[in-house]
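Intended use. Records like the one below are meant for learning the mapping from a protein sequence to its folded structure. Do not use them to infer anything beyond what is encoded.
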Amino acid sequence: MNYREIGTIRKNRRPRTRIAAVYPNTYHVGMSNLGFQTVYRLFNEMEDVVCERAFVPDKSDTCRVRTVESGAFLSEFDIIAFSISYENDYPGILRIFDKAQIPARSCDRTGDHPLVIAGGVACFLNPEPIAAFTDCFLIGDAEVLLPRFLIGIKGFSGSDRIECLKMLAKEVPGVYVPEFYRSVCHKDGTVLEPMYDDVPAEIPRVYLKDLSLTRSCTAVLTPDTAFPDTFLIETSRGCQHGCRFCAAGYVYRPPRFRSVSLLKQCMETGAALTRKIGLVGAAVSDLPGLPELCRDTEHIDISFSSLRADALTPEIVSVLKRNKVKTATIAPDAGSERMRRVINKGITEEHILNAADILVSNDIPNLKLYFMVGLPGETIPDVEAIIVLCRQIKQTFLSSSRLRKRIGEITVSLNAFVPKPFTPFQWAAMDDVRTLKKKVTLVKEGLRGVANLHVKADIPSQAYLQALFSRGDRQIADLLSLGYDNKGNWAKTLKEFPLRTDQHVCRERSTDENFPWEIIAHGVRRSFLEQEYRKALKAETTAPCRTESCKLCGVCEGGQRDD
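Structure written out for the chain above:
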């Protein structure tokens, strides 16, 4: 290996269960994912379990995929556990199977092959596109599910595979076994029906109510990640603001925070290994007690994964300045006030301009701005508003920079909106690739020639694939297989594939249409999501979630949780 690792977990005794934790992307990407690292640590903390890591090999690598720790082949393990955060990583699953010389489809594997399980937010949203490749999904928080899963498989051998899966499906909440359900096509959408009376009709997402019962932080410290030698600490799960495009804000409800005392302990652990500490969460600035947490931290450098423009307190800015942070991120997401109401962003133009002024005035010279194009109800004037707002930010940026006698750079990150399951926009149509390209070009041309400002846009055709993988049903497994056979030539694959993919991507759904992903039960009432969609189309906003008193969405009234 050409990288250095600190904290790799090893056990010398002979385990009862050997698990390969697999991330369907490269080492660099996988080790940047705190969820993957947490699963790796949780497995290794269990008795009679040894877990090793594996990643998608380089395209030039023709050898069989091996684990990092021992160099063992995946076929030697009892369980292959995929951690899947992004739909565009699905092709990596097929590459892993190919390079491991293991049949990709569950129906082609026998008791001599490892049991294949999968978890992660992409699975919580819609497991159906990769259901054909997976023996069972774990839907929910790993801290709750992994111990119950491992207890459930004790005593079973490879030859007992079906009996083991049946028991898990019946007795362990949050376990979804696709082969026990059949896909039935109705006029109002494809739905799943149980094949047996004794498996649940819906799979509840299981969650840990009190995050302070367990920590979630870096298990392996390495320079070969997006955050080199940074000790990451998860502060919270979920988000109270209810942005209508954001899946994490809905499938991780209710929003939960770790205690400041536990987070301080985690920071002490990290500070013994590195100077760099990264606080991770959907909106770190919402953390109760954040100013207290940031006090007395002169000996470490703290960074934040996400800060809202309306929440830049003096304490937070002081930490950024003290740590000599050079780049800060603001996410307006939309250019016009109307579109920010549509998506329920909850910040104004004044918030955004003030944030830019505060950051640059405190010696943070570079700004990164996140915007989306293709949002529901978006007009060309709304797209042009991105240009206007960026120019206004540039003027604020310049005024503050001149006073500091130092001018930094602004990077505008432009992303295509992708409708996600279990959000109010799950019924919305996505713009076609041609329309998205026109909108991206409009923004780029409108900002061309603006000094010290650069526009980076994602590729609309990749966003189209993400939407297809996000909203598809079990037929998408055939598309993924064909795409892999075509060596990732998706233009050719989409032409050859018999399914009309625009029906999944570019069609607005009626509110009475069934969805394949509704086999998963997150506890958010469908009627609440419908109401939010109607409010979006009228540019009406909804107040942030208040878990101590709010009963609007339904999560706090029920749901499968571990107290």
